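User: Please fill in residues for this 147-position structure.
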């Protein structure tokens, strides 16, 4: 004894099978046999666009292999900045080992790590420090308390 659901599933299977067979026959009937190699080729023009016409050899550019850069561009560091900045420690967590210094000249917030300290610091201490640039922004180095 078949239920309504089983009959519907069987009808769907039959319909899918029939559609698949029709598509197969249609592909066979409309298939172009033996396209020539020239019709199947694609070319890239001088701007990098894909075309069906061969590129003009007069527009060919010579590229030096040494000029090709793989990966990210190297950051060329400028001259070392030996400028001593002054600031105030706005936040420092000794247990986690980091904090922030507010530069008195630029009012920028500079990250400081415990490894960059020459002596222990606390919040609201006036300090002098140097700057180094990192991918995440400027970091304070050689941090010293001002007496």
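Assistant: Residues filled in for all 147 positions:
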């Amino acid at each position: 004894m078949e239920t309504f659901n089983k009959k519907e599933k069987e009808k769907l299977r039959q319909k899918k099978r029939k559609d698949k067979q029709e598509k197969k026959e249609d592909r066979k009937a409309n298939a172009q046999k033996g396209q020539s190699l020239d019709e199947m080729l694609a070319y890239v023009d001088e701007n990098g666009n894909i075309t069906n016409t061969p590129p003009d050899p007069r527009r060919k550019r010579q590229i030096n292999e040494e000029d090709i850069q793989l990966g990210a561009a190297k950051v060329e560091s400028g001259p070392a900045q030996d400028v001593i900045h002054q600031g105030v420690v706005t936040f420092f967590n000794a247990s986690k080992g980091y904090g922030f210094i507010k530069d008195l000249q630029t009012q920028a917030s500079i990250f400081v790590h415990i490894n960059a300290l020459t002596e222990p610091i606390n919040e609201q201490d006036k300090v002098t420090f140097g700057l180094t640039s990192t991918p995440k922004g400027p970091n304070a180095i050689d941090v010293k308390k001002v007496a």
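For context: Residues 85-145 form a domain with the OB fold (Dihydrolipoamide Acetyltransferase, E2P) fold (CATH 2.40.50.140).
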